Amino acid sequence: MVIDITDAHGERFYREWTYEEVAAASDRARAEADEPVVITYNGPSPMDHSDHEADE
């Protein structure tokens, strides 16, 4: 596979991939998509505090 792009400023992007490189990347992406997504956040939850007090 070959990508050959020239942008409006005349800058060229050129890249070649073999079938094996494309297949390997596709396999990695497929494996990553099948993995569970884990989101971690160490700060307080937005529901834990309010910017507005009830008695204001």
Q: Runs with pLDDT <50, length 5+?
A: none
Number of E-type strands: 2
Structural class: alpha+beta
Radius of gyration: 24 Å
Q: What is the mean pLDDT?
A: 82
Q: Care to describe what's here?
A:
This protein is α+β, with helices and mostly antiparallel strands. The protein has one helix spanning 19-34; strands at residues 2-6, 12-16. The protein has a two-stranded antiparallel sheet with strand order 1-2. The chain starts with a strand and ends in a 22-residue tail after the last helix. The mean pLDDT is 82.
Provide a short characterization of the protein structure.
29% of the residues lie in helices and 18% in strands. The protein is of the alpha+beta class and 56 residues long. The protein is flat.
Strand and helix layout:
Layout (H helix, E strand, L loop, with lengths): L1 E5 L5 E5 L2 H16 L22
Antiparallel strand pairs: 1-2
Write out key terms for the chains shown.
56 residues, alpha+beta, 1 helix, flat
